[in-house]
Amino acid sequence: MLQGRTTISKFLIEQLRGADDQADLAALLVDVTAAVKAIASMTAKGALGGYLGSLGTENVQGETQKKLDVLSNNAVIQACEWGGLVAGMASEEMEEPYVLPRQFERGAFLLVFDPLDGSSNIDVNVSVGTIFSVLRHSKIGDPSVTDYLRPGIEQVAAGYAIYGPSTMMVITVGKGTHGFTLDREIGNFILTHPDLKIPEDTTEFAINASNERFWEPPVQRYVAECKAGKTGDRGCDFNTRWIASMVADVHRILMRGGIFMYPKDAKDPGKPWRLRLMYEANPIALIVEQAGGAASTGRARILEVTPAALHQRVPVMLGSKNEIERLDRYHREYDNGDDKPFASPLFKDRSLYGGENRA
Ligand code: AFP
């Protein structure tokens, strides 16, 4: 397909040509792009549109809702509820799945989404995004919560929009990961980044370092080794980035490699993980894997985790494959007791641990 000339609808029709309900899936994804355009317009207006600030309410996660969280949630619902393509929808902003009004025909898909990821960044004009995941619903009747609790491997499509200097959508239907840029003059997303590939190796990592003392030892070991740079076990210098908008961090990784971590931490024992499985980790994991990267909890492939609840959280480590495999190995070594923290830094000051070459 022609880069710079293929619209997202044309691209989806081509990718999903043929089997059963694939045309419906393409149509649903086009509906999602309509919501994304509405959200892009609101985020771009910022203070001029009166959209900034909090609503004074909390979402199901106990987080303060921004006006744009709720407006974006409504934009997705309004774009997708009436087309006869979804059977139901669930989002970060709603405690229970959304039941379609009676007058609308039910479709074969479930749409799960985070309408505005990174929304604590809105008021400071930093990139935010929308993340979505599509699952199949083969039962008759409105879906129950348990119908949504499918492992990420069963997603039939996933994607995100990033509202940055330009608005982009990155999508996968299980045939690679592809990026589109919104041409505001003509109102269309155009294929600009076909078949994105994440390099297997990297020297860039993203993590909220303020949680360092609360991480598990394998993550502390990994980060300590990266920070030791040329003088440590890794033998090369690393760079760090942290935007606090997962979409923005992931987008950078898709463009030039790197890894993103939001691991388990002991800061708040009641909340050991930050990111939500069904509408943050799963869709991003599919996108990353389809681009040749890896996505893990440190102990399992994210896409193979079966959700126990709609708003379940998980540890997340994703991006360049060889670094994620290294993190998995550090977790294994720690769990097997092979990786004892080095007792006395006085005798080996290069790292807290014996590292690669320990006896
Ligand atoms: P918000 O949507 O509440 O801003 O959360 C964003 C997010 O889930 C993810 O996009 C970031 O990577 C992460 O939280 C940022 O967390 P910190 O607040 O620890 O930096």
Explain what this protein looks like in three dimensions:
This protein has two domains: 8-193, Fructose-1,6-Bisphosphatase, subunit A, domain 1 (Fructose-1,6-Bisphosphatase, Chain A, domain 1, 2-Layer Sandwich); 204-357, 3-Layer(aba) Sandwich (D-Maltodextrin-Binding Protein, domain 2). Helix content is 28%, strand content 21%. It contains eight helices and 16 strands. The chain has a seven-stranded mixed sheet, sandwiched between helices. A five-stranded mixed sheet has the order 11-10-12-16-14, with helices on both faces. Strands 1-2 form a two-stranded antiparallel sheet. α2 (22-45) packs antiparallel against α3. The longest helix is centred in the first third of the chain and has 24 residues, at 22-45. It is globular, with a radius of gyration of 21 Å. The model is unreliable at 342-351 (pLDDT under 50). The protein binds 1,6-di-O-phosphono-alpha-D-fructofuranose (AFP). 1,6-di-O-phosphono-alpha-D-fructofuranose binds at residues 63, 117-120, 208, 244-246, 262, 274-275.
In short:
With 359 residues, the protein is an alpha+beta fold. It has helices at 8-15, 22-45, 67-80, 145-148, 217-228, 246-256, 277-290, 321-335, and strands spanning 54-58, 64-66, 86-91, 109-117, 128-136, 157-163, 167-172, 178-183, 188-193, 204-206, 239-240, 259-262, 275-276, 294-296, 313-314, 316-319.
Topology, element by element:
Layout lengths: L7 H8 L6 H24 L8 E5 L5 E3 H14 L5 E6 L17 E9 L10 E9 L8 H4 L8 E7 L3 E6 L5 E6 L4 E6 L10 E3 L10 H12 L10 E2 L5 H11 L2 E4 L12 E2 H14 L3 E3 L16 E2 L1 E4 L1 H15 L24
Parallel strand pairs: 3-4, 10-11, 10-12
Antiparallel strand pairs: 1-2, 4-5, 5-6, 6-7, 7-8, 8-9, 12-16, 13-15, 14-16
Helix pairs in contact: 1-2, 2-3, 5-8
Bound molecules: 1,6-di-O-phosphono-alpha-D-fructofuranose.
